[in-house]
Structure to design on (213 residues):
């Protein structure tokens, strides 16, 4: 993976968000646990002690990516003992998670497993935008509750988000808006160029022994 792509992927991890973006976060992780990468390409493993129990159902993400993106929601029920539940999920990362983890393979900092408390999103609308600094250059409406928020409220919410996004560079950002117009930032990812996508496509999207050259 090219150094610039790896740097941009690491830079949009939730723990790297600048303070103005964190202030608008829908939520920060309940806990973030460092991961160790297998040099031969096996699944990542925890590199820290895992709490025994969770305060609620948890939504897990490996670095930037969740299991939800490939149709596997994979919530961790709050009543389950946490260490075996985490181990089971780490044993089956998605192809996108495997590819994104390559950004940390030669880094001085580890990737993290982020565990978020699951929250009801039935009362918010979602938008996905591309930002270059504090300038929105494109946006799409997501599918959740679009009719519940008037256009003028969405415009004011975007104005609030814009003031936080200047430090993030060229990124795509997903945010939620409540009926009161309050915005929350849900997710931030780097914009990927055709060269980036080609680089990612060369990474095996499954875990398993790698050929050593």
């Amino acid at each position: 993976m090219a150094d610039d792509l790896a740097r941009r992927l690491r830079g949009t991890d939730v723990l790297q968000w600048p303070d103005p973006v964190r202030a608008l976060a829908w939520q920060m992780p309940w806990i973030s646990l460092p991961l160790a990468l297998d040099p031969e390409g096996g699944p990542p493993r925890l590199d820290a002690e895992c709490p025994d129990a969770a305060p609620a159902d948890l939504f897990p993400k490996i670095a930037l990516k969740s299991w939800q993106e490939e149709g596997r929601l994979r919530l961790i029920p709050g009543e389950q003992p946490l260490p075996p539940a985490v181990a089971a999920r780490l044993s089956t990362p998605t192809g996108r998670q495997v590819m994104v983890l390559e950004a940390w393979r030669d880094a001085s900092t580890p990737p993290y497993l982020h565990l978020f408390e699951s929250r009801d999103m039935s009362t918010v609308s979602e938008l996905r935008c591309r930002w270059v600094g504090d300038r929105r250059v494109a946006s799409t409406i997501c599918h959740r509750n679009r009719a519940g928020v008037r256009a003028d409220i969405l415009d004011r919410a975007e104005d609030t988000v814009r003031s936080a996004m200047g430090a993030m560079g060229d990124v795509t950002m997903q945010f939620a808006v409540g009926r009161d117009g309050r915005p929350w930032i849900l997710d931030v990812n780097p914009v990927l160029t055709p060269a980036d996508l080609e680089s990612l496509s060369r990474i095996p999207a499954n875990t398993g022994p790698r050929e050593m050259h």
